[in-house]
Write a structure and sequence with these properties.
11 helices; 4 strands; 336 residues; mainly alpha
């Protein structure tokens, strides 16, 4: 049984890393969309002298900004939803293979996934609205400053070599949101499959496995057990949808094998179950080939030398994973 738990622990972490690599590919597409938006905003903002413009002209400018921002973020949402629907199916197949259940898929609607209290569409709609509000604030401030120039306004929003601008901040936020949405889809698709796997599983355990910088919320959840339907076992902490609990969360849910025989119960219900492995313990079980594949040559050494944080090490931006590669890894045929 101990070997089975180690296998399940390893598989849960590997799926999380796969999700981060898929997110890196999705983020590249989102960044391309935001670069197109920046060019469009440069044209919209550069066409109006906000200091001398009438209030109606400024309102038209802001309406054009709103339309551009909304359209760009809707395009990001549409692309990600299409890709993540396939991704969720792959996650379920891979999870089913790992736990050994007969079921290979379970009902899961991608549009109903939730990250930070919002569905994927809402996440990107909210981000577009937030960018519009920030630009509106800059435009109105500039319109009241007699020394303001159109070029300075454009630079504050779009940025240049020396000034980050609002769009660079938007790009960083987009990366965080893409990771969060992808991990949420992975976790919730996995949970849907696990709920139907009562032939081989008795529940799952929250594992915050990485390092001493793990946040207090996730540290407190580490080792907590839940039934397959998400009910707490031996504690009162609610699952609340499972990982990711917050942006940047790297927690996973580890399936617990079904216990049989007289007196069988969900392991750890009495508080005796040991917690999941630390990052170092998990990594020590991996081959050099695996480490190079996931982290790239040299990066792991930099982390060991203290020159990279764990967050930096787990940033998969330079090592994306396509859905075709993910299917090949788990030997899953593409849908016809």
């Amino acid at each position: 049984m101990a070997d089975k738990r180690i296998k399940l622990d390893d598989a849960a972490t590997e799926l999380m890393l796969d999700a981060l690599r898929v997110a890196a590919g999705l983020d590249a597409e989102a960044q391309a969309e935001l670069r197109k938006l920046a060019i469009e905003l440069r044209g919209i903002l550069g066409a109006v002298d906000v200091v001398r413009a009438s209030s109606s002209a400024i309102e038209r400018l802001l309406a054009a900004v709103d339309a551009a921002a909304s359209s760009a973020h809707a395009a990001i949402a549409e692309h990600q939803l299409a890709m993540l629907a396939t991704f969720a199916d792959v996650i379920q197949h891979a999870t089913a293979e790992t736990v050994g259940t007969r079921r290979r898929t379970a009902a899961f609607e991608i549009v109903d996934a939730v990250f930070a209290g919002a569905t994927p569409k809402e996440v990107w709609k909210n981000q577009g609205a937030a960018l519009h509000r920030a630009i509106t604030r800059e435009v109105r401030i500039a319109s009241l400053d007699p020394k303001a120039t159109t070029q300075a306004l454009v630079t504050r929003i779009v940025g240049d070599a020396e000034t980050p601008g609002l769009m660079r901040r938007a790009a960083k936020t987009a990366k965080t949101l893409t990771e969060g949405v992808t991990l949420a889809v992975a976790g919730q698709a996995q949970q849907a499959l696990l709920r139907s796997a009562d032939d081989v599983l008795s529940g799952y355990r929250w594992s915050a496995r990485f390092d001493s910088k793990t946040c207090m919320v996730c540290g407190g959840l580490d080792g907590k057990l839940f039934t397959l339907t998400g009910e707490p076992v031996g504690h009162q902490t609610p699952l609340q949808g499972g990982p990711p609990r917050h942006p940047g969360c790297r927690c996973v849910l580890v399936p617990e094998p079904l216990q049989t025989g007289v007196g069988a119960a969900l392991p750890g219900a009495d508080g005796t179950l040991s917690r999941g492995p630390t990052f170092e313990q998990w990594l020590s079980r991996k081959s050099d080939k695996f480490k190079r594949q996931y982290f790239g040559p040299g990066r792991l050494e930099l982390w060991k030398d203290g020159k990279l944080t764990l967050t930096d090490l787990l940033d998969m931006q330079g090592n994306p994973l396509t859905l075709e590669q993910l299917r090949a890894k788990y030997e899953i045929s593409a849908p016809r």
